[in-house]
Structure prediction request, 423 residues.
Amino acid sequence: MSRNVTRWTRTLAIALTGISMASVAASAAELTVWCWDPNFNIPAMADAGARYTAAHPETTFNINNVTQDEINQKLQTQLLAGVSDGLPDIVLIQDDNIQRFLQSFPGSFVPLSDHIDMSKFASYKVAAATYDGKSYSLPFDSGVTGLFYRADYLEEAGYKPEDVQDITWNRLIEIGKDILEKTGHQLIDMDYNDDGQIIMMMQSTGQWYLKDGNEPNILDNPALKASLQAFQDMAQAGLIKPVSDWTGYTGAFTSGEIAMVPQGVWITGTIKSMPDQAGKWRVAPLPKLDGVDGATNYSNNGGSSWYVLASSQHQDEAVDFLKTVWAEDVDFYQGILVNQGAVGSLLAAREGDAYKASDDFFSGEPVWQNFSDWLAQVPAVDYGTFTPEARLAVRAQLPNIANGGDIDQALQAIDAQLRQQMQ
Prediction:
């Protein structure tokens, strides 16, 4: 999940049994963890730590709140300098950033596939952190996508929930035009400085900005072109409400302005933050691209995983902790689903009661079960080492494309900028 907290490293004093959150004398094994988001990742890790310490009192946890950007910067700086002092035992890294570290700093992370059965997890999450035949992550939260929609607006426009099940983007655009005409509500909102909408469409086909992780996959990428075309079609039809930041983005749907939200499962909590809208929202699979080989109704946006630094003085304890709780404890995953809305990547978690429960907010739909079923069908892609540069190049062209600019020319510009950044 992509969530940045703006302050520099802070140690949270979370009063949980067995969790040492302050600087104290090191125990037999005090595991230091870096992660971000005090409402999501941090309490999930704190719960995991408490469970492990209850059975292993000699192992405690020092969980530090470090922003995603700061983690990337500090790891890059210290690994490049060959300095391990001050690095954590366990660190959270966003999935589309990990290949840069694995390929640039070989030997810096513990290959967890040597210790943990990776077939237990969603295959696309494992693939994101696999390099040279080994997987280095303990896959955590999924960014599996869905199409959140206002059932009341859909009905007002003359449609039923089944009309948005397993459809294409072209069909959704037709429905969106009717919704706009009959209700006055635009279909979606979007910050044109964010390519999240584009990557959701593209990954649903198994394609990415890069080929084999390191070669630009821009000019001969039919999935990317189709994604940009669908985006332009929506923008030109007036179906997209442009917003300028995260507050504007979430405000457009929590206020009831727009009809639908194609997004990762992690947006569920924000949608449910308006209790007066209970019963008005439902969730369908993401639409698929028309006329593209490999197109599916399943994709991903965001998601992170846990890593053990090879410099850790407590590798054995760190690996055993991840294996015992994060790779085996199904009850743990029920708890973080209920408490944090975290859909984990452990496939066995789908069999728990929390995942099977219906949700009154979504008119009794088993939304967590649906998301976990879709999770297993998300196509894997190779994020490679230059995904950040590729995303910046695409974002630079989105305003022009939205205004009707030539897509082939935009692709040429994207390719040129990406290749320049890769030199």
In short: Residues 1-27 have pLDDT under 50 and may be disordered. Residues 205 and 328 are 31 Å apart (CA to CA). The first helix runs from residue 41 to 55. The first strand starts at residue 10 and ends at 11.
